Amino acid sequence: MADRLYGALSHFFALYGYGVVFLGVMLENAGLPVPGETVLLFAGFLAFHGRLRLASVIATAIAGATLGDNCGYLLGYWGGTALLNRYRGRLVSAERFDRTRAALARYGHWGVFAARFIAGLRVLAGPFAGAFRMPYPRFLLANFAGAVAWALTIGWVGFLFGSNWGRLVHLVGKLDWAILAAVLAALTVLVYLRRRGPRR
User: Fold this and answer.
1) Number of C-alpha atoms within 13 angstroms, CB side, residue 35?
2) Is the dihedral of CA 23, 29, 35, 39 positive or negative?
3) How far apart are CA 98 and CA 88, in angstroms?
4) Using CA atoms, how far apart are residues 29 and 83, in angstroms rounded to an integer?
5) How is the chain split into domains, by residue range?
6) More confident residue, 153 or 10
7) Model's pTM, two decimal places?
């Protein structure tokens, strides 16, 4: 499987370059079940081998993720929950659909940020935020912050595992929760330090 995936992605990158990153990430974040995370990991892998520039890969992914989630937001805003219910059990499993809806209903814009790091939830975060009429400025801030953190993390993971594509493919399914935990831990520390500074 790793060899077939390597061959397919290499072919697309040879033809379209950074456009593969932009479209793959944008379509996934717009609400389509496209493997945007795998595309970004592979782009980081190629950057390790000098075929792409890592900074350009990350910047392209941030742009694609931000635009894609905005498209998803508009889709949910105009179509409402009736349109989203068509996803359930078809494009996305019923379990992931219900988890995303519950997470955004409970955590709001923090749910948008966290969903960026979880496959399945990432696809539906934007549409659900729009359907729930989340205030757009709040959504945009959480969306962009999540896009930056996600693109930096996934791009660098692909780059760091650039010497072993097989191992990187094996780890893809295990990355989501570990990366989310690390990002949330870092955010907790930053918030704590900011609050402690003024008091001191």
Assistant:
1) 11
2) positive
3) 8
4) 17
5) 2-199
6) 153
7) 0.74
